[in-house]
Amino acid sequence: MTKIAPQGSNRELLAVDDPQLTEDVKHAIFAAEDATFETNPGFDFKAIGRAVWIQVSGGESGGSGLTQQYIKKATENEAPTLSRKFTEVVKAYKMSNQKGKGEILAAYLNTIYQGRSAFGIKAAAKMYYNKELNQLSASEAALIAGMIQNPSRSEEAEYPVKRWKFVMGQMLDKKWISQEYYDTQTYPTPVPLADVQQNALEGVRAHIQAQVEAEMASPEIGMTEEKALKLGIVVHTTIDPAMQQASETAVQDVMAGQPDNLRYSLTAIDPSTGAVRAYWAGTDGLGIDYNRGTLQEPGSSFKPFDLVAALQEGKGVGEVYDGSSPRKFPGRENNPVKNAQGVACAVPKQCSVREAMVKSVNTVFYDMAVNEVGTQKVADAAHQAGIPEEVAIAGGDPQKLLVGENGDAPDGNISIGGGKTLVRPFDMTSAYATFAARGTYHEPYFITKIEGPDGKLLHQHADKSRSAFDADPAKSEQIADNVTDVLKDIPKASERTKCANGRECAGKTGTHELDGVDNSKAWMVGYVPTLAAGVYMGTEAGNVPLRNAEDTPVFGSGLPGQIWKRFMDLALENAPKDAFQKAKMIGQSEPPKPSTQTTTTTKTTDPTTTEPTTTTGKPTETSETSETTSSRNPPGCLPALCPPTGPSSPTGTNAGPGPGNGRNPNDP
Q1: What is the pLDDT of residues 71-106, one digit of tens each?
Q2: What distance in Å separates the CA atoms of residue 174 and residue 154, rounded to the nearest whole number?
């Protein structure tokens, strides 16, 4: 539960003829809002005339004088109609005859919202410049006055500068500042918001408050920051305090002593409702939100959507593909798709979908997407799971996701989460939550309800859910269960991702390769029946090497996997060990039996020790004995989760889920 600024908070009242209200401040207000305030009868005839003409012509315009604006704010009637404006004019005229200009001005300056959680001009002086009102320069006053028109844009880069220039120009025209002063002024940058803001949620949790405020402002709720602050509302959020603490502890425990350039995020969602239970979006709560404020390549963590598309076509996890490497595909004759170093199916040319997912065999999924189900159906499956069709990042224009050139179907790189395949980490967690919810998508949310200061219910969340992968809920459930049946083999393959105390969990790692050695992005996304969580790791600089404290490459099962495991173990410590429902398999659930037997022996090294271990593979029937390789791996480790045993390929790129297997073949 979060209380958002009760009325009177962050507000300092201005007295009539207050000595703190300097001529510079008054002139800045007049220049921005009503240049004729001191002489007009409560309204500006010319401005009203312009507004009437524009509205009659089908446009929009302000036209309200300062007195009218005060009436509008005081009565909370902001309908953009001529009838409302006429009523304002009448009331403004009466007020001007009954009240002095100083009284009207003080009332107005105490009422207006100016952004940065500031009500009134005195609070604005402190929130923008950390100064008393009478300490503001004419230039600083010009910016504060300029933001009255649209205070919600106070933190944008260009809009405040534009408004400051406008007000300064008006002040010069009215001779309220000299030409010399005007010529010597540069934009008076406000102090950093972090230095003056008093958030209900501080530190890394300030990102949660930002998400709550964004949800409040959504069309569904329609509550602006100004209205929320004015009412003094109480917001009940979905965040579970214990799980939020678990996310912070997990990050602190794993990332202690790691390089400062690493950036990471964690989201946890209740699959049954879409409620966000934990949200860790970066070390700077007022900085970049790495959960919802960036788009990243998901690498092999995107491969489950290939599987969904195949299952929708009736193809089971026992279907076999040619998993050999490298392989040429249409359009990639000169840049063949490769598997990561050391990754191979037991019988490369007869690799089942299940084995390919666990080992993250790129050539299988590229083949499946390009030659069988089609890349558009892979994109559709991801959208059905919860990846939005378009998003707007950091206040920018909406951009479509998972599309190719000119909005066409994506190319084959979508099969391995590379190329133009860009997603938000938050949405990947939401999509995996759909698997955990057995094929039912629940729109994620932060607010359960909003109450007024008197306890009156102002908003109650209503679940927005749908059958994700098929119109028939039973079929969608079956598809999701098949995905889980495969993904639950992955976390338990490594001690770094295996859930504690024998708890059954499912998930997938992923990386985006930078060159033949390093990665620039790393992921771990997974779930149990009651909780989905995703961890992303990258850098603020973008495509630069991810290196840990030992100066070795970061992979999905490395730092991200360790954060994920630590969080899940803490968050679920006292929770029942719910098992996944047994899947009703679709299509061919097991690969066909080969015709001959071979036994292979291989020496491997556990990545957690320097001692080599010897394992003997089970007899494997095959008709191509020359292609046979061992499917056995170091204890507690699969090829998809182990470091490479040799140097990376100098040509081409690969994709996969973890150390030695986190390559994306889309980067030249």
Answers
A1: 555 444 444 433 333 343 333 334 343 456 677 787
A2: 25
Structure confidence by residue, pLDDT tens digits, 573-611: 999 999 999 999 999 988 887 654 443 333 333 333 222
Q: Where in the chain is the domain with CATH 3.40.710.10?
A: 248-314+374-446+465-571
pLDDT on residue 13: 65
For the chain, residues classed under CATH 1.10.3810.10 are 9-196
At residue 338, the pLDDT reads: 92
> Any alpha helices (H) in 488-581, and if so which ranges?
559-571
Catalytic residues: 33, 300
CA gap 589, 592 in Å, rounded: 10
Q: How far, in Å, CA of 380 to CA of 306, rounded?
A: 10
Question: Would you say domain 248-314+374-446+465-571 falls under CATH 3.40.710.10?
Answer: yes
Q: How far lies 404's CA from each of 53, 375, 484, in Å?
A: 46, 10, 29
Question: Using an 8 Å Cβ cutoff, are 113 and 149 in contact?
Answer: no
Please name the residues in contact with 551: beta carbons below 8 A apart, sequence gap of 6 or more. Answer: none
E strands, 88-246, are: 234-237
Architecture of domain 9-196: Orthogonal Bundle (1.10)
Q: 529 with 538: CB under 8 angstroms?
A: no
